[in-house]
Amino acid sequence: MNGEWRYWLREHRGTLVALAGFVAMFAIYASNHPAGLNPNVAQTAANKGVLLAIVAMAQTLVVLTSGIDLSVGMVMVLANCLASTIVMGSTLESAAGIVAVLAVGALCGAINGVIVIFGRLQPIVTTIATGSIYYGIALALRPVPGGDVDATIADAVTGKLFDTIPASFALLLALVLVVWLPFRRSVVGRAAYAIGSSEVAAYMSGVPIKRATFVAYTLSGLLASVAGLFLTFVTYSGEASAANGGTYTLYSIAAVVLGGVSLFGGSGSAIGAIFGALMFRTIGDLLFVFNVEPLWQPLFQGIVLLVAVCVGSARLLRVRNRLDLYG
Amino acid sequence: MADVARRRFDPAVAWAFGCIGIVLAVGSLYSSSFLSPAYLLQQLKVASFLGVIATGAMIVILLGQIDLSVPWVVAVGGMMATAATGWGPLGTALAIPVGVACGVLIGVVNGVGVAYLRIPSMVMTLAVNAVAQGLMVVHTGGFSPQDSSSPAMRYIATGDSLLGVPNALVVWIVVGAATVFLLTRTAFGRTVYAIGNRERAAYLSGARTQAVVMAAFAIAGGLSAFGGVLLAGYASKAAQAMGDPYLLPAIAAVVLGGTSILGGRGSYLGTVAGVILITLLQSILSVMQIEEFGRHVIYGAVIVGMLLIYGRRRRDAA
Description:
Strand content of chain A: under 5%
Mean pLDDT of chain B: 87
Order of helices and strands of chain B: HHHHHHHHHHHHHHH
Structural class of chain A: mainly alpha
Low-confidence stretches of chain A: none
Distance between the termini of chain A: 34 Å
Strand order of the largest sheet of chain A: 1-2
Oligomer: heterodimer
Low-confidence stretches of chain B: none
CATH topology of chain A: ABC transporter involved in vitamin B12 uptake, BtuC
Number of helices of chain A: 14
Order of helices and strands of chain A: HHHHHHHEEHHHHHHH
Radius of gyration of chain B: 19 Å
CATH architecture of chain A: Orthogonal Bundle
CATH class of chain A: Mainly Alpha
Largest interface: A-B, 56 and 57 residues
Largest sheet of chain B: none
């Protein structure tokens, strides 16, 4: 029993560290916030955090297979532009619009997957190129910022449940329950972990490599489009912003790392990445509550990120064989 | 000997040059001015900036690493060089070295993290990029430094030397020649390739792999910053987001030139071809007055298409 417990702790160490980090950061944030922790403060913070958390989940799925998705932010921007065009009108039309946006997102992910699997190109270059294509389409849909979105749905998703809990947390929870956990427990999910640990060993063991990689990329695109939808609900408009896409891609990598997911693949979880994202967002807001000039905020955020990634190298102290340093 | 010959006839490099021909041929159907020497020379001048930055990116990619700090190291190079110009005559004289030195410094930080702290380069350089951005925001916001370039910076970026060859092109040729020498004729270069193939083997063969990795990142940082200095000279001022459009094209140029993103394989000639290809593609698409969205789509599709033709992983690698 004791051994099992220790194994569980070891497996989830990254996630737990991210959770602890987020709780600590958020405690500092909330206790110093001029208005204290009330539902409105939580709602604003949650909407910003959840957006990045969803993108980070999308990134996690691909990173687990030891890939990387540099188009994730652009898929989000594309979904944002599409949603600001078609998610409106009657309830039925809005629902159909949402389904269409999600389908487009999944299609983008699937295209990435197909190129990586059958084209045998490296994920990093593939997604750089497809990201440019997705951004181009977003720009075609929305050359200038604007558009609109169904306000009822938007308010429901970005508002509060029972006037206390941010509704966006419910969305995040739903994504974990509907997308992440079934994936994690399925054969393809386990296969994705196996590919990340060692693709050769996974292949030799008869793991469905192609199917798992394809599912991981497709779900990643789907989640990125959920993020795009959510962005539309927050801003009530669409904008084909290359800066936004790039920033969210880079931040998603940061969140994944803070969340204890190994960039080499095979270990970590989307739940860790969620806490990584929430922590990253809280850090960004910390200076605001301490009344420091906004000028210092990017530097502070950068230094915290740098320190966080350096802390991970404490594992070097435990390395007994120098050769273990070199992969 | 056979080995040398095989590297000389790298099919990927041949493909990349072939694609340049195709792009030019397609462009010339639209307008014959695409084949005029003046246009081509102008494109080579513009390509020089990307060329210098891609050189640094290539050295890091040969190691099997990646440098995502390019955007803000480019900005640091440009902004610190112009800031130095504001310090008086001595600063003006030292503007270029100051900019490059700042880049080398950032590269050393990257290198320490990747080589000694064993942090994955994608994360380390991402974090360093964020710190560099923060430093520049504080620097410009808090000290309002001068942002116009020194005469020397303008001269090397926009001037013409003998026979009308742009100075920027001369700079790229010098940087390129030095890089080719470094990569093919020195122990450092050999070790870079060896590390890219298998760091453990390189270490066991007695190479000082950690020092080499750190030096490679320092060189890459210096080259990115130098690219920023040139860009600031070209635009005659430095700006915060000046490096943003250079990260992905630099990586794409290196990869299109046949360098393996996994490291250990690739030639500088390929990178030259990749840089020219990317620059021509961007230029011709904009001259053809294709709308911006179309340019992005075609640009991405062409990169995927070319890589599908010649950049695929060998089947046995999986």
